Give the backbone structure.
Amino acid sequence: MSPRLYSLTIDRERCKGCELCVDVCPRTVLALSPKLNSRGQHYAFVTNPASCIGCAQCSDMCPDAAIEIDEEESAHA
Ligand code: SF4
Ligand code: SF4
């Protein structure tokens, strides 16, 4: 069985820090950064990438389409 890995890209400049993605993620993959983007918003970032199951609830929830999810094949174990 080859586990699937998911690569998340969050456009921090689009993010308005609403935290919807952080709240909806069932695996606590996302968090809000203590840092600010150029709009003065705390942006979401990936804090726990290995736990992502690729469910896409975060990208579906984001009102600003700031999250992209790519699926990657893992290397052979
Ligand atoms: S795809 Fe699912 S598990 Fe991965 S960060 Fe988004 S909500 Fe969390
Ligand atoms: S849902 Fe979108 S805008 Fe809101 S914190 Fe997450 S990435 Fe940022």
User: Anything to note?
Assistant: The mean pLDDT is 93.
